Amino acid sequence: MSAHIQALLGCGVDVVLDFPANTAVQRHGFKALAEAAGAQHLLVYLEADDELCLERLALRRVQCPERAAFDNETVFRQVSAYFEAPTAEEALSIEVRPA
User: Fold this and answer.
1) C-alpha count within 13 angstroms, C-beta hemisphere, residue 29
2) CA triple 89-30-85, angle to 5 deg
3) What are phi and psi of 19, to 5 degrees?
4) Residue 34 CB neighbour total at 10 angstroms
5) Residue 46 — φ and ψ, nearest 5°?
């Protein structure tokens, strides 16, 4: 998929990636894709505390009951344990938004 993304970026097409970028290593990979294509990059960072995330998961379980086995507090805690907030040292273009 990297070659396809770089080809699109090389043509001047904006590409939005909705993939996990929860760690510095993952974000480095996305930044490298953009740089290899000579494209700009932007990380949109949604600031949300755990309480808000859990409230939204509860709502999602109501709206999409088929996701209830995955969208729960246990899985949330397992996944969020690996989260690393972006830092200035990563040299990313970051837009911080409230969730």
Assistant:
1) 12
2) 45
3) -120, 160
4) 19
5) -90, 120
CA 48 to chain centre: 13
Number of helices (H), then strands (E), belonging to the chain: the values are 4, 2
Structure tokens at 77: 């805690």
CA distance 40 to 30: 11
pTM higher than 0.90 = no
CA 43 remoteness from chain centre: 8
Render pLDDT for 74-86 as a digit per residue (tens, 0 to 9): 999 999 999 999 9
Could you read off the pLDDT of 15-67 as tens digits, one per residue?
998 888 999 999 999 999 999 999 999 999 999 999 999 999 999 999 999 99
Partnered with residue 98 across adjacent β-strands are 47
User: What does DSSP say about strands 43-47 and 94-98: parallel, antiparallel, or unpaired?
Assistant: parallel
The DSSP H or E segment spanning 57 is helix 50-63
